[in-house]
Design goal:
The protein has about 190 residues and is mainly beta. The protein has helices spanning about 35-40, 170-175, and strands spanning about 5-10, 15-20, 20-25, 30, 50-55, 60-70, 75-80, 85-90, 100-110, 115, 120-125, 130-140, 145-150. It has a domain at about 45-175: Jelly Rolls (Sandwich), CATH 2.60.120.10. It contains two helices and 13 strands; from the N terminus they run ββββαβββββββββα. The strands form three sheets. Strands 1-2-10-7-12-5 form a six-stranded antiparallel sheet, with no helix packed on it. β3 and β4 form a beta hairpin. The longest helix is centred in the N-terminal third of the chain and has 4 residues, at about 35-40. It is globular, with a radius of gyration of 16 Å. The two termini are about 25 Å apart.
Length: about 190
């Protein structure tokens, strides 16, 4: 591993928490958000197809739980560059021993953590502060016809959002609850 990231495995196979090393001096700081040479050993493969930034105005807002279906499934590297969020991923890989289990972690501008999310996971977050900014590196380009989503309120997922859920988009609130026969996506 290089000198800018310290990796922590999680209970969900392939999902990695990255602790970014921050270099500080009297002028400010520098932190590396992405380095394919260092991240390849942790599961990043291929190119960076897109880098997206989101801004979320109000505390309590939930965005997600989003994914792309194969063959456009993507790896994501997620960082919070302003404010704080509870970042949540759900394993939706068919046949996985942790199928429909979730992992949640606080990402913030202060804690220097990022999440490296492999293919086959749904992702979302709740803003824990006003005016949150998130930065996403994606290994695949967005394909609308391949888009999928889970309902962030689905009792089967058992996600405990720390604040009352507010400001769900029509798209996110419209995702149906999982049926008993939901089998997930091909890994």
């Amino acid at each position: 591993m290089g000198d800018r990231f310290e990796a922590e495995a999680t209970r969900l196979d392939g999902l990695v928490v990255l602790n970014r090393k921050v270099l500080k001096d009297d002028r400010g700081f520098l932190t590396r958000l992405f380095c394919p040479d260092e991240l390849e050993a942790l599961g990043w493969s291929g190119r960076v197809a897109q880098i997206n930034e989101t801004g979320t105005v109000h505390r309590g807002t939930v965005r997600g739980m989003h994914f792309q279906n194969p063959p456009f499934a993507e790896i994501k590297l997620i960082s919070c560059t302003r404010g704080r969020v509870l970042d949540v991923v759900v394993d939706i890989r068919r046949g996985s021993p942790t199928f429909l289990k979730h992992f949640a972690i606080e990402l913030s501008e202060d804690n220097g953590r990022s999440l490296l999310v492999p293919k086959g996971f749904a992702h979302g977050f709740q803003a824990l502060a006003d005016n949150v900014h998130m930065l996403y590196a994606h290994s695949e380009s967005y394909v609308a016809a391949s888009e999928g989503g889970l309902n962030s309120q689905d009792p089967r997922l058992a996600i405990e959002w720390p604040l009352p859920v507010t400001n769900l988009s029509a798209r996110d609130s419209g995702h149906p609850l999982l049926s008993a026969d939901y089998a997930g996506v091909s890994p």
